[in-house]
UniProtKB/TrEMBL annotation:
Protein name: Integral membrane protein
Keywords: Membrane, Transmembrane, Transmembrane helix
Species of provenance: Streptomyces coacervatus
Pfam families in the cross-refs: DUF347
Superkingdom classification of source: Bacteria
InterPro entries: DUF347
Amino acid sequence: MNKVPEVTVYFWVIKVLCTTVGETAADLLMSALLAVVLVVQFRTSAYRAGVYWLAVALISVVGTLVSDNLTDNMGVPLETTTTVFAVLLAVVFVAWYRSERTLSMIAVARFWLGLDAVWSFWIAYVLTRPLGASVGDYLSQPTGDGGLGLGTVMTSTLFLTVILGLVVFLAITRKDVTKPNGQELQTA
């Protein structure tokens, strides 16, 4: 039983057209899928690993698409995207901390737009992604393309080492664990 069509000129024409649509519609499709998954995440009453991590993965993809579109299609230099995303994020975090004395919700969206804490968290979560993509591109891309030329292996190794260090630090100190009823957590 054959599961593919006869390979003719029509096959190759349709294949090329599908590849083109895949390239041109990927951004829109991923963004739409992210929106759907975020709606599902917002509606869940508790942590659901599959939904949560799918949202995280899609935020990574869409954030990368945003960063790549700015640099590759609009010609915005890597230094500019990295600087602008870093400054915007710093302004958001400073305003957020001054208002709330915590970084557990995004104060601007919460109080000025009336969004609840869940929506506010996910907006901040999404906005941090293009910054990460811009930093990664800036560090890894060749100097001739506006990057620092560290390469993908060096950049990935550097960041994975820092991530591992932070995760180990948090696992030991438990500084990222909410204290019940204002009491100190006992470390094992």
